[in-house]
Every structure is written in structure tokens, then in C-alpha cells.
Design a protein that fits this description.
Length: about 325
């Protein structure tokens, strides 16, 4: 692999123009320049990705990753950006978006296969329409199948990995491999085996139930979710993971976090683990508020909260000045 191109290398417009042309020609991925990631994150914050590519198939993705390696271009796979904090400086590399190439959802008996770029809500809906149970409690979780897998997203005691059989991933070398569920090491909002890999497909074995029963369970979940969560203002869902034996939201509330503001963002009054963008918030505002809350919780409870939200484009730790 070549030396990794730095942010300063990628300031060279001629080089970046050339990379875009080569990506389109050699990998057949549509490629954008300086695409604002605030358009691709549910927080509506984040600077530009120097290159932003849409593979239209798995083989295009294989070629794209191999190309990035061959020229030393850092890459990052984004889903729907609903659990992602991107720096205001953006990302000096190539963001890979599967939204145009891996969205198929196929049902065959009790088996359900979904592309990594499929919208999770659509998967839950199609499962319900086919009387397939096992994802009802995931209804209303925004984001895609790849993002959900990478996060092991879940709610109300159910996780996306519960009914999983296997997944297809493209490794950091650009080669596709299949991983069985027990090779992934799923944990609470974690899936270690996916680090550096791009998930292109997931196979689930669902449980056949009465269609009306599954649809009703999905509707109940959505009603419950709207009652508990903050679904109207831009956010990334829960910011912190729950520490062992505790609840981040309760801790943040106990330190007076609810309603706390930094610039254009504030802690939701409805859910203390949500930071909402009230319109003009920046990524730097979110970081300042996260640090403040984490410090207050540490001072009062002696617990250092861990981030549930993933980050992109920051130098070093989010919790220290760099
Ligand atoms: C209002 C709201 C409510 C939420 N409620 C919940 C909830 O109840 N439960 C819950 O678990 N989460 C919840 N979330 C968080 C979020 O919806 C989930 O984590 C979701 O699964 C993220 O999917 P995404 O496609 O948006 O991923 P992104 O945010 O785009 O990415 C998240 C991570 O997944 C990786 N990733 C994305 N796609 C792929 C891929 N194809 N291959 C490999 N890696 C990939 C990214 O690199 C990144 O590390 C909520 C968010 C919001 C905004």
C-alpha cells in the first residue's frame, strides 16, 4: 500500500481532480468532490469529504477499496449518518456510500436477505408484511442495515444481530468474504469484527408468525418510540453508551444536563442522552457539550461515559484538545 495521502496532500486540487477521474474510470463509481457531510448526517453537522463515492455494485466496491489502497487514500463507509459525528473540518479521504448499490431486500420463506445500504425501517416493514417476526422492536430505528450491523443497533431488548445468520463484508484489502454470526463478537452496541470492513449483505433467519400479529407489534413499537424519543429535531440518538449497571440519561439529568446549551446545540429536555441541533449548531458545539456533560458526570459519579456515537475526521481523542 502507498503512503497515506494527508489532508495537506489533498489540498492539491489537481491531484484530487485526477483521483475523481480515476475513481470514475477505473472503479465505475459515481464520485463527488467536497460533498458536505452535514447533508449526510442526522445531526446536520460536519464538513466536506474531499471525495464521496457511490459504488453501484459489490464488484465496484471491491475495485474502489483496492484503488484507495493503491493510491494511499483513506476511506470510510457511511450509512445514513444517524450515529455519526463528523468534524467541521470534514474528512480528508473518500467516503463510501452504499445507498446506490446495495439496497435490495429479498424474502424467501423464513429467510430474509438485505443489502448493507438498505434502510432498516424498510427491512422491518417488508418482514412484517411477510409475517416474519424478529425485528419488530427495531421499528423506528433510523439508519441502514450496514450501520445497524456495525453498531449492533437495538431497542427494547432486541438487537439487529438476534436473527442474523451471516454477513458478506468487503475487507480493507477490497476482497469480499462471508462471516458467520459467531465470528463477529457482537456486544452491546459493538461488533468488533466489522472494524475496517464494509458490510454489503446480511442474511437473517426469521420466525414465521401471523402477519397481523407482526404488523401490530411494529405499530406498537413505533408508538412507544415516539412517546419516549425526540424524533423532531436533528440528533444522533443516544450520545453515550449506558455504563454497566447504570443509565447515561439518568446521570446526565442528575448533573443538571437537561437543556444545557453550547452554541446551536442543546441537551434535549425530553431525553437527556440526546443532543439536538436547534438549527445553527456545529460539530464543535456538539464536542464542547459532550465534554462538559462527561466531565460533570465524572465529577459526580466517578464514571467516564463512553461514546455510542461514532466519529469521523477528528484528530486524536474527542475528549482532549489536539
Ligand atoms: C432519533 C434517533 C433514534 C435512534 N434510536 C436508536 C435506537 O433505539 N437504538 C439504536 O441502537 N440506535 C439508535 N439510533 C442510532 C442509529 O440510528 C443507529 O446506530 C443506526 O443503526 C446507524 O445506522 P446508519 O446507517 O445511520 O450508520 P452511520 O451513522 O452512517 O454509521 C455508524 C457506524 O456504522 C458504520 N457503517 C455504516 N454503514 C456501514 C456498512 N455498510 N459497512 C460497515 N460499516 C458501516 C460507519 O462506518 C459508522 O462507524 C438512533 C438515532 C437517531 C437519530
Amino acid at each position: 500500500m502507498s503512503r497515506l495521502l494527508t489532508a495537506s496532500d489533498l489540498k492539491d486540487q489537481k491531484l484530487v481532480d485526477e483521483l475523481k477521474v480515476r475513481i470514475e474510470r477505473e472503479t465505475s463509481c459515481r464520485c463527488l468532490l467536497d460533498e458536505m457531510l452535514s447533508k449526510h448526517t442526522s445531526w446536520r453537522v460536519g464538513g466536506p469529504a474531499r471525495l464521496y463515492a457511490y459504488p453501484s455494485s459489490e464488484s465496484a466496491l471491491n475495485r474502489l477499496i483496492q484503488f484507495c489502497n493503491s493510491v494511499g487514500l483513506a476511506f470510510f463507509t457511511i450509512g445514513y449518518g444517524t450515529n455519526l459525528l463528523v468534524s467541521d473540518d470534514g474528512f480528508a479521504g473518500c467516503v463510501i456510500d452504499l445507498a446506490e448499490g446495495a439496497r435490495e431486500i429479498v424474502v424467501d420463506g423464513e429467510s430474509l436477505t438485505a443489502g448493507g445500504g438498505a434502510w432498516l425501517g424498510e427491512v422491518v416493514r417488508i418482514a412484517a408484511e411477510n409475517g416474519l417476526s424478529g425485528m419488530e422492536k427495531l421499528a423506528g430505528i433510523p439508519g441502514g442495515v450496514g450501520g445497524g450491523m456495525s453498531m449492533n443497533a437495538g431497542a427494547f431488548g432486541m438487537a439487529i444481530s438476534d436473527r442474523l445468520i451471516d454477513v458478506t463484508v468487503v475487507g480493507s484489502d477490497g476482497v469480499s468474504v462471508r462471516l458467520e454470526k459467531d465470528q463477529i463478537g457482537f456486544g452491546y452496541r459493538s461488533a468488533p469484527a466489522f472494524v475496517g470492513k464494509t458490510i454489503t449483505r446480511a442474511n437473517f433467519l426469521m420466525l414465521k408468525r401471523r402477519k397481523s400479529q407482526v404488523i401490530r407489534a411494529v405499530e406498537d413499537t413505533i408508538t412507544d418510540r415516539f412517546r419516549r424519543n425526540v424524533m423532531t429535531l436533528p440528533s444522533a440518538g443516544s450520545v453515550f453508551k449506558n455504563p454497566v449497571g447504570g443509565f447515561s440519561a439518568k446521570m446526565v439529568e442528575a448533573v443538571g444536563g437537561k437543556g444545557m446549551k453550547e452554541g446551536g446545540v442543546e441537551v434535549s429536555l425530553l431525553h437527556a442522552n440526546f443532543i439536538v441541533n436547534t438549527g445553527s449548531g456545529s460539530s464543535a458545539d456538539v464536542v464542547r457539550l459532550i465534554r462538559r456533560l462527561r466531565g460533570l458526570v465524572h465529577d459526580q459519579f466517578g464514571v467516564l461515559l463512553e461514546m455510542e456515537v461514532r466519529t469521523l475526521g477528528f484528530k486524536g481523542s474527542l475528549f482532549e484538545d489536539n
